[in-house]
Amino acid sequence: MASTIAGTTGKAKALDLFGGDRKWNADSWTASDDTVRGGKSRSGLEVSADGSSARFYGCLDIKTLGGAGFASQKTTGEWDLGEYVGVRVEVEKGDKKRYTFILKDKLLPPDPENGREQATISYEADFELPSQTIPGDTHHRTVIIPFASLNPTYRGKLKKDAPDLDTKNIKQISLMMRSFFGTQEGNFSLTLKSLTAIPEIPKQLSDTSVTNVDARKLEEGKGTAAGRSDQKTDDLRNQLGRPVSYWSKVSDPSALPLFEWNWLLMIVSTTARLAHP
Question: Domain tally for the chain?
Fold first, then answer.
């Protein structure tokens, strides 16, 4: 059964959350790294002089915590995204590492004993640019993350009984670099032009390439950083308006180097609830 997202109408105009009409502001973001668990990973958010772009960067250390590790930047606020169906991430430049986009609709007061943020459910999706078979950094790419593709997790583990994401009450947006069971480490860098809430998933994909990422297989140690899943869902097929035959032609990453497109659109389209009934 397809997952549902509360309050989605898909009739609003695109809304720039960061970048675009709303300049980036480094002061709005704070680090949340594995140093809280004794790790040595670090992250930063560097904003361009004119506020038109922001670079999420740092170093992921996985040796200190025995193969684990994470580095992230988060921002808090009040966003009513009930009229939107996903987020468009405009990437100015990205490396080959896999990143995680996270939303929260609930926050708790800091723990009175240690002052740390108390755990709540995270709704997340993983993406990487470009495919591991393409050499070098990538430039000027677009990532579309449907809200229906977000996986609910609690303290890093899937939470199958989680409520639907309340898009009318988004409290926190985060970008994360994690080890995925020791499959990646070291320096990372992702320069973003904008994060934009979108009222519908693009259907005109003639100049784009689409891959179907099963983030949870990798998170559970069942895949590799280059792996892709061919699993399709009726829910997201209908959202994207394409037949199964179309997706089957582009879901194989080994085929990606055959195409020379200016824009790469990666649809992160496998939900935890459908992938793990």
Answer: 1
What domain range is 254 assigned to? 15-275
Residue 58 pLDDT greater than 80, yes or no: yes
In a domain, 208, yes or no: yes
Q: Quick one: tokens of 124? A: 């997340």
* Mean pLDDT value across the chain: 76
Q: pLDDT band for position 128 (50/70/90)? A: confident
Q: Is residue 2 part of a domain?
A: no
> Which pLDDT score, from 0 to 100, does residue 151 have?
94
Distance of alpha carbon 271 from alpha carbon 236, whole angstroms: 9
CATH number for 217:
2.60.120.430
pTM value is: 0.74
In whole angstroms, give the CA distance from residue 20 to residue 184. Answer: 31
Please give the share of the chain, as a percent, with pLDDT higher than 70.
68
Tell which wins on pLDDT, 249 or 7: 7
Residue 4 resides in a domain: no
Would residue 3 count as lying in a domain?
Answer: no
pLDDT in tens, 200-218: 988 754 233 333 344 444 3
Please, which residues have CB within 8 angstroms of residue 222's CB and are 6 or more apart in sequence?
none
Q: Evaluate whether 69 touches 177 at the Cβ level (below 8 Å).
A: no
